[in-house]
Design brief:
With 401 residues, the chain is α/β, with parallel strands linked by helices. The chain is built from 15 helices and 15 strands. The protein binds 4'-deoxy-4'-aminopyridoxal-5'-phosphate (PMP). It catalyses: (sulfur carrier)-H + L-cysteine = (sulfur carrier)-SH + L-alanine.
């Protein structure tokens, strides 16, 4: 197990919120001091633009910004010029989908699933409506998982795009994405991987996955909000049109034409998210100093411990007891999740209530909303116990009526 006492010393939020039980990392992670300090360093010591200034401070800021790209590239085993900084997973996935508006046509097919976050399926619903390409959904198995077999059932020679999540933000399942990518490539389709929930929990290797595009957000891996990553294979990014036009993305401009910079810069129009990228770099370094093996062992143990205790409680329904990551999605029977969450909130236990921006899987579960607790590196057994106490208190409270 990780030494949570030591880890919490790195997270100032615990200093300011003594009783905090934070179980909403699925929505956004807490931020370590190293990240906050690095963002502060940029604003306090540099605070200038990148790629433009012909003076020392700007060179230094540019170095930090581009070093961040190197850190991200190493983190996912990509090449430097395959890493585009964006506003987050949502922006990355939309960018890719937009670029297929001029590529797809009637007769083409797109595959997605009911397990997707809205960011992964809505951009393709839009593309499907506008191009008349057919949107197909992988049939989930009884547990709610995407399986290779079910994927084969919807894959056809007309499939041009596959947009799937690597880890579900509701069920915590890991998609067998590597095999799916192989099959998709056999029919010439590209695969876009939503790695927003994978990046905090497991190593990502875009080369061994052989995915065509992959997206994740900084704020879910201990980094700042407002920064994310789009990975794309170089030849695909080269073919892709920018979705925004402006400063810094262009080499030459004449009145009736312009020549874009090479990737990744042609996708980063305007002043980029400098502090975000620099902060993300620190977050990745912090995460790597802990290591995914230790992260996985820690969250799995807390997950096992919590599920064991939940098993003994009558009046709850856990929807993903076989989750591959530390995500527990459940309901307290007869209690609306928002009512339940308010009792958790009173006890300073932060969990998520709602449809988690994934209405399709919530409907698939036969629910209008669920409660979700995510376990991560700064959680300990005591957090799990206080979570369990809140579950019991909620049941007792609502059973009085
Ligand atoms: N995909 C998944 C699986 C997610 O969990 C999230 C965030 N909840 C997103 C996409 C969107 O990420 P962001 O809001 O950072 O753009």
């Amino acid at each position: 197990m990780l030494d949570v006492k030591v880890i919490r010393q790195n997270f100032p939020i615990y200093e300011h919120n003594k009783d905090l039980v934070y179980l909403d990392t699925g929505a956004s992670s807490l931020k370590p001091k190293a990240v906050i300090d690095q963002v502060d360093h940029y604003y306090s010591n540099l605070g200038v633009n990148v790629h433009r200034g012909v003076y020392g401070l700007s060179y230094e800021a540019t170095d930090l910004y581009e070093e961040a790209r190197t850190t991200v590239a190493k983190f996912i085993n990509a090449n430097f010029d395959e890493v585009v900084f964006t506003r987050g997973t949502t922006a990355s996935l939309n960018m890719v989908a937009q670029s297929y508006l001029s590529v797809l046509k009637e007769g083409d097919e797109i595959i997605t699933s009911e397990l997707e976050h809205h960011s992964s399926m809505l951009p393709w619903l839009n593309v499907s409506k506008k191009t008349n390409a057919k949107l197909n959904y992988v049939k989930l198995n009884d547990e709610g998982r995407i399986t290779v077999e079910a994927f084969k059932d919807v894959l056809t020679t007309n499939t041009k795009v596959v947009a799937l999540t690597y880890v579900s933000n509701v069920m915590g399942y890991i998609t067998p994405i590597e095999e799916i990518i192989k099959l998709a490539h056999e029919v010439g389709a590209v695969v876009i991987v939503d790695a927003a929930q994978a990046a905090p929990h497991m190593p990502i290797n875009v080369k061994s996955l052989d995915c065509d595009y992959l997206a994740f957000s900084g704020h879910k891996i201990l980094g700042p909000t407002g920064i994310g990553v789009l990975y794309g294979k170089k030849h695909l990014l080269d073919q892709m049109e920018p979705s925004e036009y402006g400063g810094d993305m262009v080499d030459f401009v004449v009145k009736d034409n312009a020549k874009w910079k090479d990737t990744p810069y042609k996708f980063e129009a305007g002043t980029p998210i400098i502090s975000g990228a620099i902060g993300l770099s620190s977050a990745i370094k912090y995460l790597m100093s802990i290591g995914f093996e230790a992260i996985e062992a820690h969250t799995k143990e807390l997950h096992r411990y919590t599920l064991e205790k939940l098993k003994d409680i009558k009046g709850i329904e856990v929807y993903n007891s076989k989750s591959d990551t530390g995500i527990i999605t459940f309901n307290i029977i007869g209690v609306h999740p928002h009512d339940a969450a308010s009792i958790f909130d009173k006890n300073k236990v932060c969990i998520r209530a709602g449809h988690h921006c994934a209405q399709l899987i919530t409907k698939w579960l036969g629910q209008i909303a669920t409660l979700r607790a995510t376990l991560y590196i700064y959680n300990n057994y005591e957090d799990c116990d206080r979570f369990i106490d809140s579950v019991k208190e909620t049941i007792d409270f609502f059973n009085q009526f």
